């Protein structure tokens, strides 16, 4: 049994790839939507957030032989919990990290935190589009909502809890874009033009996170962009190709002894 942290689309594909290589796989996710997608693909699922202690116990109960952390690049807590749980349970930890996007747009400013992005945006003002998700929305709301000459557009997944958060933070309805990707460059451009966006804020979530498309759209329209760098975590063993993850598993957990 291999436990895979699998909350993203590429993580689900990796979990399937590992299963197709001959391993039993248990994928862990935190939303019912992700769980449904995994089950529809024929994967066993554990639904719900796990502390390091809970994950370590799950590893022991399932007699898992390794943990593959394919969580989102910005899911810092999940990765730290996975590393700690694997160490506690005495099993190997493997990190799958989606490839970073190559950014070559001269109007991009890189920052190291959401707070830094919000501070910089507050100085620039204008029509600001956030594509940073809902978890950190309060950081931007605190700094940007109510500023003169500033309109903040929040783009996020069309989930009830996200809409409730927007209501709680007093985001006007007309400033909410609730959409599920993938987003093409053309769609991004259309949204930027529709709202008259002058500043884009996004995360370096990798090619699979459609950062390339967002920045290409911003570049064509001459829109200034703030990109939040990935958290700096010492993962140890890291791979960015599915085949390399499978090869690593085959070396440390030969199929002849896995269960």
Describe the structure.
- There is one protein chain.
- By secondary structure, the protein is α/β, with parallel strands linked by helices.
- The protein folds into 2 domains: 2-99 and 232-252, Rossmann fold; 108-228, Rossmann fold, CATH 3.40.50.
- 41% of the residues lie in helices and 20% in strands.
- It has 10 helices and 12 strands.
- The chain has helices at 9-20, 32-40, 52-61, 76-89, 114-124, 137-144, 160-168, 185-195, 211-221, 242-252; strands at residues 2-5, 25-29, 44-47, 66-69, 93-96, 108-111, 126-130, 150-156, 176-178, 199-203, 224-228, 238-239.
- The chain has a 6-stranded parallel sheet with strand order 3-2-1-4-5-12, with helices on both faces.
- Strand 8 (150-156), helix 7 (160-168) and strand 9 (176-178) form a beta-alpha-beta unit.
- Helix 3 (52-61) packs across helix 4 and helix 5 (114-124) runs parallel beside helix 6.
- The protein is elongated, with a radius of gyration of 20 Å.
- The chain starts with a strand and ends in a 7-residue tail after the last helix.
- Its EC number is 1.3.1.54.
- It is an enzyme of class 1 (oxidoreductase).
- Keywords: Cobalamin biosynthesis, Oxidoreductase.
């Amino acid at each position: 049994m291999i436990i895979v942290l699998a909350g993203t689309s590429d993580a689900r594909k990796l979990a399937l790839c590992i299963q197709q290589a001959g391993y039993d796989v248990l994928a862990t996710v935190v939303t019912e939507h992700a769980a449904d997608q995994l089950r529809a693909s024929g994967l066993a699922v554990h639904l719900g957030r796990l502390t390091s202690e809970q994950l370590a116990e799950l590893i022991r109960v399932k007699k898992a032989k390794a943990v593959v952390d394919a969580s989102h690049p910005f899911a810092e807590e999940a990765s730290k919990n996975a590393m700690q749980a694997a160490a506690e349970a005495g099993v190997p930890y493997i990190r799958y990290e989606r490839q970073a996007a190559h950014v070559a747009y001269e109007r991009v400013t890189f920052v190291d935190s959401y707070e830094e992005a919000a501070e910089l945006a507050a100085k620039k003002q204008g029509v600001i589009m956030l594509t940073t998700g809902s978890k950190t929305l309060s950081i931007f709301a605190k700094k940007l909502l109510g500023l003169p000459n500033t309109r903040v557009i929040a783009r996020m997944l069309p989930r009830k809890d996200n809409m409730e958060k927007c209501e709680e933070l007093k985001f006007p309805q007309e400033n909410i874009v609730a959409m599920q990707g993938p987003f093409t460059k053309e769609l991004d451009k259309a949204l930027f033009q529709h709202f008259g966006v002058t500043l884009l804020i996004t995360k370096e979530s990798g090619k699979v996170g459609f950062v390339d498309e967002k920045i290409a759209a911003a570049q064509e329209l001459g829109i200034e962009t703030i990109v939040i760098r990935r958290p700096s975590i010492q993962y140890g063993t890291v791979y960015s190709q599915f085949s390399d993850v499978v090869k690593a598993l085959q070396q440390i957990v030969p199929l002849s002894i896995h269960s």
